[in-house]
Specification:
5-stranded parallel beta sheet, 211 residues, 10 helices, globular, alpha/beta, 5 strands
Length: 211
């Protein structure tokens, strides 16, 4: 069972998502909250596999909660909900260590797919959105001189799969290797790119034209 903790201030949206996720055989929605004031405590209490966090909420924003959660639980997988046009918040979420982000939509199946991908070690971020984030990096920061990154052919292959938004399981099938081998290669990729999450790795891969 994938334990999910939901933070969403829109009551109708929250209840609708709660009802749908409660009917999934592989997902256990442990709690659904209207704000993130007690996010750190609840994450520590429930130990969810995936935290589904709305970016814009009253009292405490999802971005503030994300930073606090990552400080207390560095390994927490936080999937942010956002509106596609809200570029600045998407950018901040990725820089703060979000495991991915989902564009709000009325189709609950999209949420199920994103939750499963993040749980499996992937990042719910399409190449098109990754390129949009890259454009924001270029606009807001002066690019430093790029240094050579010594990736093996296998690491480049796996990084390419990550850019496509594939989960560890999908990468393993594509490359004909085991799940644990994929995880080992991804850890090496993170070390070489000096990043801590899949979204960061995707952005850097595109920025440095590694794939």
């Amino acid at each position: 069972m994938i334990k999910v903790l939901l933070f969403e201030d829109n009551k109708n949206f929250r209840q609708g998502l709660l009802l749908f996720l409660s009917g999934m055989e592989d997902i256990w929605l442990v709690d659904a909250l209207p704000d993130a004031r007690d996010a750190v405590y609840l994450v520590k209490k429930h130990k969810p596999d995936v935290v589904l966090m709305d970016i814009q909420m009253p009292r405490k924003s999802g971005l503030e909660a994300l930073v606090e959660i990552r400080q207390g639980q560095p390994g927490a997988r936080v999937l942010m909900q956002t509106v596609f046009e809200d570029d600045d918040k998407v950018f901040q979420a990725i820089c703060s260590g979000a495991s991915g982000y989902i564009v709000k939509c009325p189709d609950p199946e999209v949420y199920v797919k994103a939750i499963r991908e993040v749980y499996a070690g992937g990042a719910h971020m399409s190449p098109g959105i990754a390129r949009k984030v890259l454009a924001m990096f270029q606009q807001q920061f002066v690019k430093s001189e790029q240094t050579f990154v010594d990736l093996t052919n296998r690491e480049r292959e796996i990084l390419g799969c990550m850019v496509k938004g594939q989960s560890y399981k999908m990468i393993a099938a594509s490359c004909g290797i085991s799940f644990s081998t994929v995880a080992t290669h991804v850890n090496h990729i993170y070390e070489k790119l000096h990043v801590n999450s899949a979204p960061e790795a995707v952005v850097k891969a595109l920025e440095m034209k590694l794939v």
